[in-house]
Amino acid sequence: MDNILQLLKKIQEDLNETKESVRNSEINLLNKINETFDHVQSKLQSLEDTVSSQEQRLDLLEKRVRERNIVIFGVQEKERNYDELNKIILDLFNDVMKISCTDLDIQSLRRIGKKSEKIRPVIVTFSTLKRKIEILRNKKSLETQNCYIKEDFPPNILAKRRELQNKAKEEREKGKKVFIKYDKLIIIPPKEATNRANKRNHSGSPPEKYTRHGIYNKESTQIQKKNTLTSYWNNKHGQTSTRKEKFSTADSATASCSGTNK
């Protein structure tokens, strides 16, 4: 009986050791998996940062490439080659928009998309940014020709601007002034009303010509005129009378002195 108990005790100890060994193995394995996962996660984060940085550089590069471009819509496709298209665009700038342009002002131009029944837009690249800005400022002059001009934005920026259009519409309905600048919605803050209650009224300040409700204040205007013309003449005559009194007093004093000497 004792032998059986010892044998059972030995088996129990072996089982406990086996369980401990398995537990330690599991812990070691989990630690290694966690270390590997952390390493992979760190590498992945580094790759994501690199990709994000490269995307920003590509966006900036594409923005610089397109910053001297405009897109003209509605120009009839009558040209047969590049030179004829170049002449059509130059005539549009010179004759319709009244902006002097030559071949030197245009770096390149081409139609966008495959030829079809619809009129393809023309993308124009200018030699200088100054010329592009001048064209954009006068783009409304093309309305009589059923043509219109837009800036050349990358596809992702165009998609974002379409989303911002709905937001801009909502803000305008609220009475706010907004506009879209590249890929951002700019809301112009209203001018702050002047709080006259916080301003200290000076004693020498002139009266207001108009009341708070926009009504012409006739009395204040008359008071202001009195304070200017009437007071001026009264002061002037007052000074004159004072001088006369001084002179009369001096004359009487002189006369009395001469009588005494006699």
From TrEMBL:
Keywords, in A-Z order: Coiled coil
Record keyword Coiled coil present: yes
Region described as Disordered: 192-212, 232-262
Coiled-coil ranges (or none): 1-95
Biased composition (Polar residues): 232-241, 249-262
Record bears the keyword Glycosyltransferase: no
Protein name: Uncharacterized protein LOC128199747
Organism: Bicyclus anynana (Squinting bush brown butterfly)
